[in-house]
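User: I'm putting together a small comparison set for a docking exercise, and I want a reference complex before I start. The sequence is below, and the ligand is zinc ion. Could you produce the 3D structure with the ligand included, as structure tokens?
Assistant: Of course. I'll restate your input first, then give the structure tokens for the complex.
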Amino acid sequence: MSKSEIPSYVDTRKVFLQEGNLVGTIVFSRMKRFQECLLENQGNVQVELEFSANKSKQRIIIGKLKASAPVACQRCLEAVQIDLEESFILALVRQESDIDKLEEPLDPWICEDHKLDVAALIEEQLLLCLPIVSTHDDKGCLTNLGYDEQKNATIDGASQDSSKNPFAILKTLKD
Ligand SMILES: [Zn+2]
């Protein structure tokens, strides 16, 4: 796939007429809502978009995205890299009232003028394919973390019970 950055906007009047396609990347920092779900700002998403019109002259966007994103493991809160890969088909509509006119099974994407914001479209797809819960594959990641803390505590010479075990810390917080 191309490594070039996808432009901010494509002109919908041209791109569907020419049945164009768009291949490139979008850096995470261009997608603020998605970025908020990540532990780090580094990285990008690889994107492929094809623009066409179907028999009923509906404007169709066929797309693919691929990214590797750093999120927090919901067990140990450390970073875990998750792979996101998604294909989607969208129908471009002018306004919400046009959605009813769509043929199944097309998901609508509303674009009120001629400027299609590609990063916003991709951001929405990324948010949709982001797992609700992400954890390390290793089910023992929390235990491992506890083990490390215990080891560090011994090295530091700090031997307070609460520093040995994350559950003990949680209990302290609860109390
Ligand atoms: Zn973990």
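Residues 73, 75-76, 78, 135-136, 141 surround zinc ion (CB under 6 Å). Confidence is low (pLDDT under 50) at residues 154-162.
User: Thanks, that's exactly what I needed.
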